[in-house]
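Before the break, one more example. Copy the sequence into your notebook; we will annotate it together after we see the structure.
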Amino acid sequence: MKIEYISRIQDENVKLRKQQFASFISQYGIQHNEASKYIESLFSKPLEKLTASQRRGRLLSELFIKSYNTMPDGSFKYHVVAWRSLFFPTEILYAMDIIPFTPEMTASQLAMSGIQIERVETAEQHNFSQDLCSFMRTAIGASIENMFPAPDIIVSSSHICDPSAKFGEYASIKYNRPEFILDVPYNIFGCSNPALKEEAIQYVTHQLKEMVQFLKENTGNDFDLEKFKECLQYSNEARKWLLRGNELIHSSNPSAYIGIKDLDYAANLMHTWGTKEIIDVYRLRYEEYLKSEPASEDKYRPPIHWYHLRPYYKNKLLQYIEERFRIVGSMVNYMYWSEMDISNPFRALAIKTLLHPAYCPVLLRAQITRSIICSGEGVIAYYPKSCRHFHSSARIESEYFRNACIPYLVIDGDCIDNRGDDFAVVQTRVDRFHKELLQQSKGKIA
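Here is what the structure looks like once it is written out:
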């Protein structure tokens, strides 16, 4: 019965994904008969000539088009696709030759291309609230418009991003596909109760093992333990290079200026952990920063740590901030997990998934920043109002950082929906914050 079910789903997805890919590329003015040339143009440049950022983009583009059953050379090949919520671990998926598709990350790509608002409005016209996460509204709108590749299965986790988990339920109903929900206990990061922490680790470990059986039954793909360990080792190696890059740019005398583009790596959110290619991305990132030299105007750009993501639509804010501040750290690239023990792979992945510092009380998260921030550095928190998890923490963080004499600026913006963008208002607050940091560096304030 399962074999017949899997065959039926794949036959259905072949037809759907062809239509969906045509719908997607039409937003760029590309006809379906021109798709092959469009795909070839994405991969025309030799890999060895690409920068770290370009390699990251190449890897994401390859995974994206494969989810539509299309290869980089334009040929057809069926791929099992799992729609995943934002913080669901991907190493098991790659070990089983399943391509992760993250709707929220695709929403950011639509915003960078300037085609997100039509999707946002489609969702709102179908009774999805305007105060819902704009990443989700964009993803929902794209799904309604039949632009995203139909999934074989949906995998969701309960932690950090509530709308993301609910979107998994929506997708499961819309496409009539099975969903696995990973239940992740709250507030285990920093937990001082060893017994409670161990219980949570075992709880998530057991679920991951159950998930493998779920994936096997609903996709027909096999699970190879050795390949799973290999995927974890890839993540360990990439972690090493990411950490080296982070340490380089946050040294006492930084030799590298990373700029706003480093936020695009968003390591905590990436669905490329577990691939071999991601190792070279972070290795090359480190090497590029190692070779770079500080700009002459750096002494006028006080160092800051960036909280959350950035606006992905075309805007004036990012360049304005980059001209005035030197970003030496970011929440999305913070390396929070220790090297995984591949001799006990399920437990190792459970620990990586469970012990996330964003899934704990606000003050504990703020204390992490205080432990790594240096004198003279500040924090800019770009918090979308629709992100209840982070935006709601701004007042608590503000009081904590003020008491710790750490300058802190909250920018109420949006990462995707630019309909309320007002640069003139934000500019004034950025200027005032810039002046405050300069004064502090000169010892005029405590």
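The beta strands are 80-84, 98-101, 153-157, 179-182, 303-307, 326-330, 378-384, 408-413. The longest helix spans residues 194-219. Try to locate both features in your own notes.
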